[in-house]
Write a structure and sequence with these properties.
three-stranded mixed beta sheet, alpha/beta, 6 helices
Amino acid sequence: MRRPLAVMMQRKLQTIAPDATACDAARQMKATRVGALLVREGEQFVGIVSEADLVRKALAESSPVERVSVRSIMSAPLISIDIGRSAHEASDLMAEHGIRHLGVIEDGAVVGMVSVRDLLRYFKNWGNT
């Protein structure tokens, strides 16, 4: 059985604490060259903070961005998809929710993240299979 999400997803999870600042998130995204970070509180993933969240929420706040917490701008809950689902199903789920990143779940645990860019690369290389 083919598992395209397992092939295209990012397995190295980039995480940040909900009490970190928006500046911390931006710096970490820059350093790791990712467009989103999973927000982890203890052992739970409680949301996701993306470049869009930084722009649309943190920069739009009236407080200095150094004081804006990730918790206040993150998207929650984390929307996820099972690793056995298809790339088309992932694309449909992103479109349905107007998002660009999904957590990938295997046996009830988050094991990766897939982005719209990952999907575009997949469809470019492998077409509609």
